[in-house]
Amino acid sequence: MSNSNVMTQTGSNQAPHYTVIVVGGGQAGLSISFYLKEAGIDHLVIEKHTVTHTWRSQRWDAFCLVTPNWQCALPGYPYRGDDPHGFMKKDEIIAYLDGFIEMVDAPVVDHTEVRRVRRQHDGSYVVSTSNVEFTADHVVVASGGYHTPIVPRMAERLPHGIVQLQSSHYRSPQSLPEGAVLVVGSGQSGAQIAEDLQIAGRKVYLAVGEAPRCARFYRGRDVVDWLADMGYYEMPVDQHPLREGVRDNTNHYVTGRDGGRDIDLRRFALEGMELYGRLDDLRDGVLYFAPNLTSNLESADDTYNRINASIDAFIDREGIDAPPGVPYEPVWKPEGERTSLDLAASGITSIIWCIGFTPDFSWIDAPVFNGRGYPAHVRGVTSQAGLYFIGLPWLHTWGSGRFSGIARDAAHVVDAIRAAIDVSRTASASLAA
């Protein structure tokens, strides 16, 4: 549905009403629409930009999936290409999403920002947007959990001549000015962007955080394949050793680039990348780092070896014939902890902040959030009738915020909506009788 079509419905004083309004037109919102259409439930998807906008505008040029293509399993639209164990590049991901968009054919109003959601006394919701106001019996929040880029206040004190980008705005080495680049953060984005810059011949300084890492291939197979066979991706959050705490975990760094490989920061150092610990401060043109590079590298390697050891145990338990595996041994170690770096002397002309995002659900007026502003829910169903969430990390399983698990989550949320509609109809029929 286009904006013009929606606007024509507002000629009366009564706001357009839908049984369900879905906020967000990414893969999560479109997956909800898929099941709502299948159930014959009228609904509207409201998107601030255009559908699947994030994949098109917030990924760098060399971006590719870090999980194999076979895990792309959007509802009714699994990966059907000829490289299930490969890793789609950015243009291939967009083509895959375009096919999904066409197949779902969701009723969407785009370029419309939802500014407030509030519940009325009768239990319905008012959805106020930048264009018009709607009402709905149910609201599904599918806007994800990565809203506000994290940039430390010290960034305000950097010299004006230094280009600063958040990871979602990085595109390519060629888009940056000549000179060295400081990448802050070593999660999935930071590690891959640092590699992208180093491959292009740029001098790279990397402030290493506490992100874990994992192998790409181990004992003859992709680690993802092993973990799938081990049932890891089927594990619900309430059975994970960390329980809901797993939602705060940083993703393991690895890459699907060039067919897939490990990301080993120690090897980057051998090739000329300068590694430091966590960036803590900036004073008088000097950057200061925590003396934790060694511990961060060791912690990442421990996770790497621990995952591989769990695969070893699975292979032994199941009697699987597989090539031998050996623990990772460091190929480089810091000679000491360097805790300062002079900006001018280093030749740094660009800084890329890769330290994540914070959620912003301030526009939802509902008593369902914890002290950190994160919604409390069970598989996306909140304690407030008619309000649901979808597409969040570990909403139910590891794949909840990814292409692999969104179909199951969306089906569950729509089942909950259908059940609520049935209860409401039964209650109305009883009153009428």
Automatic annotation (TrEMBL):
<dbReference type="InterPro" id="IPR050982">
    <property type="entry name" value="Auxin_biosynth/cation_transpt"/>
</dbReference>
<protein>
    <submittedName>
        <fullName>Putative flavoprotein involved in K+ transport</fullName>
    </submittedName>
</protein>
<dbReference type="Pfam" id="PF13738">
    <property type="entry name" value="Pyr_redox_3"/>
</dbReference>
<dbReference type="InterPro" id="IPR036188">
    <property type="entry name" value="FAD/NAD-bd_sf"/>
</dbReference>
<dbReference type="GO" id="GO:0004497">
    <property type="term" value="F:monooxygenase activity"/>
</dbReference>
<dbReference type="InterPro" id="IPR024000">
    <property type="entry name" value="CHP04046_FMN-dependent"/>
</dbReference>
<dbReference type="GO" id="GO:0050660">
    <property type="term" value="F:flavin adenine dinucleotide binding"/>
</dbReference>
<keyword id="KW-0560">Oxidoreductase</keyword>
